[in-house]
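Below is the record:
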Amino acid sequence: MRDRHHYYHYGTGIPRTAGDTLRALLGVWHQFVVYLASFATVAVYWHSHHYIFSRVQTVSRQTLWLNTLFLLTLSLFPFATAWVGETTLVALVPEQLYGIVLLVTDIAFDLLVICMLRDGADDVLRTTVHKTHLSIAGNVVAIAAGWLWPPLTLIINVLILINWLVPDQLGWRRGKRS
């Protein structure tokens, strides 16, 4: 097993090259792709998190605990990203773990939004719940498809990410608070 600290910059998940040549850079292309996919995913969660909290006036104790759970699931991304990056994208278990991290993060986010709606958040968040339910279903499909060919887990999850890049009809496009 390779020493993770040798191949990644200070635990960030950013791959290190084994030299200073173009060949060395091309040797870590798959690590860089996985890193970018994870970065984009965390960025979408970050924006969505900001969006849902802009739609609430008060936060309950349950919301705080669910937010903590959501943050815990996000903290698993560097580990899963690094493990997938250490493979050549065809190893089943690392790809499955990455899919499971996405699944539990989506579930935690869904529980957080549902709790906020129960606490009186703006009804516009119902669109977010719908998108999250689609993501959860997609995550299950991605994990199952990974058994056929492991890279499908990452490919399907990137396609799910595209759904989150499309703004909600009721929120972002009308210039409401962001």
